[in-house]
Amino acid sequence: SQKIEQNSEALNIQEGKTATLTCNYTNYSPAYLQWYRQDPGRGPVFLLLIRENEKEKRKERLKVTFDTTLKQSLFHITASQPADSATYLCALRMDSSYKLIFGSGTRLLVRP
Amino acid sequence: NAGVTQTPKFQVLKTGQSMTLQCAQDMNHNSMYWYRQDPGMGLRLIYYSASEGTTDKGEVPNGYNVSRLNKREFSLRLESAAPSQTSVYFCASSLPRENTEAFFGQGTRLTVV
To answer: In this predicted structure, what is the pLDDT of residue A1?
Structure first.
């Protein structure tokens, strides 16, 4: 079955540094991969979507890469701020049914 | 702009009781989802509905039933609640295309004692 893995350990970084989060998947070749942000007590909010033929996508301080050979996506936040502290989840749609499956998420903590 | 609305926000049930979690969206989306979120487990898909009248099992469907009443509403029913169903439940909706994002409700925190 489809499996999506994200680092379960929290990432703790200093303000101003670049945060890099990893998403690995197995047993499927999705055409798209998505990233969401989730704050405590709230539902996830969509951030970025990247296609399989896009190596990289940017939105303001966010950058996502998608390596279909490695079956991996990297999510970068440059010039990180304490307000970026949250849990970040990757997601992809499995097969033609369009069911959306999520990884377990990585918690990011940005220290002032 | 309501988006996806879930009711109730909090609920405490006794083991064996039943209840229905309600979800409605006003974005004219065909696809709707129910997830549960447990610490360290991320979001796990319970059931999915591609359109009105159709439902499909997700990763963890046991102990749940769903009903897609119309295009707007997708309800999740626990017939006989168990402590293992203590979780935060999220409803979401999206357009039925691979390249579109999902929109989530604010969640229902359910405790089964």
So the answer is: 58
